[in-house]
């Protein structure tokens, strides 16, 4: 993956001009003034995506589903295979991020890469990205609330977890994360750095404990054990559903892209942040997955537990140690939600800057104190809370709404990659690019996104009932339906894709920081 500046890109930035990697010059060339403070170094940019991917949160949340949809063989081998596919997606996205390092990220690049109907491509990409990110914030908060109640139940056995309490705890978590993004912006940047070490050290602690303490481990051949408890007679179908565990985990790495306008040397550091976050998460996640799988004592008991990973910790380490490790898991989920909300806010800021949201002038305003889009923070908080509310009456309803998180995000990832492929040699890459591998990597990325998206919308349990029905396609159809009606009734007349505020010298005079 080269970091050379290609000739075509060099001409775009003025030949051998040293400003080829100058952040402000790049932003001005795309028609935007600088409004956000660049406080993110390379590590910080990597940290935002690594934290949102959050392998501890993803594996602990989806492990139980994987046990019943393929078992250890799919959990381990599926993790390896899907991680490689996601790395293709990340590399293709990183190439686009280097060319268009803006907070608008996916929707901005879609509008720039499209040959025709730029506004429509940008519109649908932006709304898929927005809904996916809002769903991610809600889902992560809900997962954290679920594990918080699991910890409370271990500490005080008389405590009874309930859907109502889960919703209330989720709401409190999201509001606190909103306050952090409003009043302690510098602290949020610090917490994103801490989150990386929390995740890595947490994995070391959990994996080490599962290796050293239990007096029983499964044999090496256990990784080939297959189980299909989905209710479907087809083992192939059941195993394919198990691949979703890894796909659930690897979402949100577009966070590095969205933080481009706050990242130093974004044309290089943003794409590096995306690919490194995926690569490191893949390796560390495999270690955690192996440790959990080989520590299973009673497969049927663990697979039937309310929180299978917690049951593994209790069986192998005892209740006391399990509670300590559960705190690490909860902390990881809280870090994940905070980073997800931060990324969500930047997407709202950029989408509103181009006039694509109701009340756009309001949402893309920047606080003079923190130089961050505070109003966008609270729009993200409000939308996430709205998605959580149905969980008060039905867990199935909540699952249906947030399930569009993964499908929405990956479809939004696919659009600019597909448009870059259609552009062919006309695409002008940034300093970080794939060279001659750009096209084959992009083809693999789009193919995988299409296949995984189909899987996410198929039934995931049999028999199919009101409670077990997969409502993801319904939720996705509702989102696309609203976006389509809105587009044809009014948006197409006023929204034509990313706007330019003027020539580079004109927008430079508009800089606020």
From TrEMBL:
InterPro entries associated with the record: AA/rel_permease1, Amino_acid_permease_CS
Principal location listed in the UniProt entry: membrane
Region of interest (Disordered), residue spans: 1-22
Membrane-spanning ranges: 42-65, 77-100, 121-154, 166-184, 196-214, 234-253, 274-296, 316-341, 376-393, 399-419, 440-458, 470-488
Topology with respect to the bilayer: Multi-pass membrane protein
PROSITE patterns: AMINO_ACID_PERMEASE_1 (PS00218)
Keywords: Membrane, Transmembrane, Transmembrane helix, Transport
Compartment(s) where it occurs, according to its Swiss-Prot or TrEMBL record: Membrane
Protein name in the entry: Amino acid permease
Organism annotation: Streptomyces lanatus
